[in-house]
From TrEMBL:
It comes from Sorangium cellulosum. The modification 4-aspartylphosphate is found at residue 52. One of its GO terms (molecular function) is ATP binding. This is Putative regulatory protein. Residues 143-372 form the Sigma-54 factor interaction domain. Residues 120-135 have a biased composition (Pro residues). Residues 119-138, 383-407 are annotated as: Disordered. GO terms for biological process: phosphorelay signal transduction system; regulation of DNA-templated transcription. It comes from the Bacteria.
Length: 456
């Protein structure tokens, strides 16, 4: 059993992470800030330290060099990626950009624990043996698919990866745009350098310019010190602008200049700096239509799509839903420390026939749910929840919320019900406040759980 120090000030997130790590056999000690952790514990006494970058008091990056041989893994949001990248350069073991998958977090923690204890006995045989590699051509850097459409996508990815040209990835929500961008980065000569993900839709319009390009001291209210932007944080590596269609016009102009000149000029500065960054942009929107409507600059559109890859929806990839489900099933049971599970013939047929409007992300949620419900036996059709009629969420009383009453089901289920029930009458700020999380965390969790914000 490894001892992990978890420092996170958002209570709901912390509880969720603690339960996740505990389920994987780790002893977790929690704190809401570095000061609190230091007051109660010896920082060097842990096998690994997992901390948010943004904390009350000192930021999580200050843990670097203070935790003995324990790897320090940082969790970042868009606003702190740069700080996290710098911290890795100074000795932090790694960073994870929110929103992240539970699987991703567990895999990263296990990897770092294993790397500090090469002599340690192998973990108890909880975990299933690693999945055999998918047959040649059916998998590329985490993307599974044997359909003709996906083989074509894999061929395009291999072709564009070594290039320096800007790439536009287009596809419906949940088709794997971010996964594809990461694959391009990993197959490119920039693979050893940072991959920086910017969720354009999650950053308030008033801040996005400064976040991307940095600013000089005094450039805006509250900008007390000069700060580098995410373009600079990605120096030498790849910058993914996810949901690029959400960028305000003013920022589109600045991005265009960056692409034309290869230079970044911080807000409030007259001095331009060269930035060696490969840009990948992703969107589920029809940018061509946005150009025609006048909400997206045509010159930027043409700059972005020097190279373009379209990810087909899952319903246009015959056979892939079952292939991906099997791969996700292996991944999920391995992460949960369970023996491998099989899909029954009926379950396979149901997966193949379902339309999957939420694409791979929806399939992933269905597999996750099925593993929990199957309780160790084969996955049946009923476990996938494909036949469930859409139900209005059961009421959650505000009294139980105030009392912080523990949900009878999972925290995610509780979150989902609360959001669905209240999103029509409460603002995002009010929902976040009543859940005890930040607006940013609310947005991130909506993304992860596939509960998009209703368009007003
Ligand atoms: N071809 C694939 N094979 C296996 N897993 C995949 C594949 N494509 C996507 N996934 C998984 O599905 C989930 C959603 O993928 P990803 O986040 O890349 O999609 P996206 O198009 O960027 O989503 P969104 O539009 O919601 O931002 C991720 O957990 C990813 O690992």
């Amino acid at each position: 059993m490894s001892r992990i120090l978890l420092i996170e000030d958002e209570i709901v997130i912390r509880a969720e992470l603690r339960r996740l790590l505990a389920r994987h056999g780790h002893a977790v000690v929690e704190a809401g800030s570095i000061a609190e952790a230091e007051a109660e514990h010896e920082l060097c006494a842990f096998d690994l330290v997992l901390a948010d970058v943004r904390l009350p008091g000192a930021p999580g990056t200050e843990l670097v060099g203070r935790c003995g041989s324990a790897p320090v893994v940082l969790m970042t949001s868009y606003a702190t990626v740069k700080a996290a990248v710098e911290a890795v350069k100074r000795g932090a073991a790694d960073y994870l950009s929110k929103p992240f998958d539970h699987d991703e977090l567990v895999a990263l923690v296990e990897r770092h624990l294993a790397s500090v204890r090469p002599e340690a006995a192998p973990p108890a045989p909880l975990a299933a043996p690693p999945a055999p590699p998918a047959p040649d051509g059916d998998e590329l850097e985490g993307m599974v698919g044997g359909s003709a459409a996906m083989r074509e996508v894999f061929a395009q990815v291999r072709k564009v990866a070594p290039s320096e040209a800007t790439l536009l990835v287009v596809g419906e929500g949940g088709t794997g745009k971010e996964t594809l961008a990461r694959a391009v980065h990993r197959l490119s000569p920039r693979r050893q350098q940072p991959f920086v993900l910017v969720q354009c839709a999650a950053i308030p319009d008033a801040q996005i310019e400064g976040e991307l390009f940095g600013y000089e001291a005094g450039a805006a209210a509250g900008a007390l010190a000069a700060r580098a932007g995410l373009c600079e944080a990605a120096e030498g590596g790849t910058l993914l602008l996810d949901e690029v269609g959400e960028l305000p016009m003013k920022v589109q102009g600045r991005l265009l200049r960056f692409l034309q000149t290869g230079e970044v000029r911080r807000v409030g500065s007259t001095r331009a700096r060269r930035a060696d960054v490969r840009l990948i942009a992703a969107t589920h929107r029809d940018l061509g239509a946005m150009v025609r409507e006048g909400s997206f600059r045509s010159d930027l559109y043409f700059r972005l799509r020097v190279l373009e890859i379209r990810l087909p929806p899952l319903r246009e990839r015959p056979g892939d839903a079952v292939r991906i489900a099997e791969s996700l099933l292996k991944r999920r049971t391995r992460v949960m420390g369970q023996a491998p599970l099989a899909l029954s013939a009926e379950a396979r047929a149901a997966i193949a026939a379902a339309p999957w409007p939420g694409n791979v992300r929806e399939l992933e949620n269905a597999v996750h749910r099925a593993v929990v419900l199957a309780g160790g036996s084969a996955i049946e059709r009923a476990h996938l929840g494909l036949d469930d009629p859409p139900r209005p969420p059961p009421p959650v009383s505000s009294a139980s919320l105030r009392d912080g009453a523990p949900p009878s089901d999972s925290l995610e289920g509780y979150f989902r019900r609360f959001v669905l029930e209240h999103q029509d009458e409460l603002t995002e700020t009010e929902i976040a406040r009543r859940l005890g999380i930040s607006r940013k965390a609310l947005w991130e969790r909506r993304q992860r759980l596939g509960i998009p914000r209703p368009r007003s």
